[in-house]
Specification:
By secondary structure, the protein is α+β, with helices and mostly antiparallel strands. It folds into two domains: 5-67, Winged helix-like DNA-binding domain superfamily/Winged helix DNA-binding domain (Arc Repressor Mutant, subunit A), CATH 1.10.10; 76-196, Umud Fragment, subunit A (Ribbon), CATH 2.10.109. Helix content is 19%, strand content 34%. It has three helices and twelve strands, in the order αααββββββββββββ. It has helices at 5-21, 27-34, 39-51, and strands spanning 55-57, 65-67, 76-84, 91-92, 98-101, 111-116, 131-135, 145-150, 154-162, 166-170, 179-182, 186-196. The strands form two sheets. Strands 3, 4, 5, 6, 7, 8, 9, 10, 11 and 12 form a ten-stranded mixed β-sheet that branches. Strands 1-2 form a two-stranded antiparallel sheet. The longest helix is centred in the N-terminal third of the chain and has 17 residues, at 5-21.
Length: 200
């Protein structure tokens, strides 16, 4: 999962501490490093890293923090390539920006992010400011959630199903009718594998 700046700083400090000493710092030592006097604040940051799968906590031990090993798959940075709003072309961005993603999103295909703009995708439960994590693939398997271009211009998001003469694009939320797009009028731009949402 995506780490905030403070969470990444906390994780990096703990990881470096373990590398140098062979054991984890206490909450007090973490707080002292960052100038935090409240153990509750440090505890909150550590618990967030546990919830995101980056740390493991052993109960009732002062140094009971472990780095979760990710095997050969490592966290990686993916670029933010543009902005998306339903019914409009993807707008590329000139601002150089990258976001660190956890190993679960690593793939043999390139991965990038698109920022949702406006409220046109609310029917898909996507809010303004959300970040779509997209695996760059030109083909999709039945049931995958895709980013597509319709008739050469408008973008859409939906669940992909191939049928004999057309593609059925199902909404990701129940209660709405699917789209039926004839062959030659739909182009898969990528597979949506996750969404990042922040509340600040």
């Amino acid at each position: 999962m995506y780490l905030t700046k403070r969470q990444k700083e906390t994780f990096d400090f703990i990881a470096e501490y373990v590398r140098e000493r062979g054991y984890a710092p206490t909450l007090e030592e973490i707080g002292a490093h960052f100038g935090l006097s409240s153990p509750a604040t440090v505890y909150k940051h550590v618990q967030q890293l546990v919830a995101k799968g980056r740390l493991r906590k052993t109960r009732h031990q002062g140094r009971g923090i472990e780095i979760v090993e990710s095997g050969t798959r490592q966290a990686f940075s993916a670029p933010v390539l543009g902005e998306i709003s339903a019914g409009r072309p993807v707008e590329s961005t000139e601002k150089a920006e990258a976001i660190e993603l956890p190993p679960i999103f690593s793939s043999t295909s390139p991965t990038y992010l698109l920022r949702v703009r406006g409220h046109a995708l609310e029917d898909e439960l996507l809010a303004d400011g959300d970040m779509l994590i997209v695996e760059d693939r030109p083909t999709a398997r039945d049931g995958e959630v895709v980013l597509v271009v319709l008739r050469g211009e408008a973008t859409a998001v939906g669940r992909y199903f191939r049928e004999p003469s057309h593609v059925r694009l199902e909404p990701t939320v129940d209660g709405r009718d699917p789209l039926y797009i004839p062959d030659g009028q739909i182009q898969v731009r990528g597979i949506i594998v996750g969404v990042i949402r922040t509340y600040r």
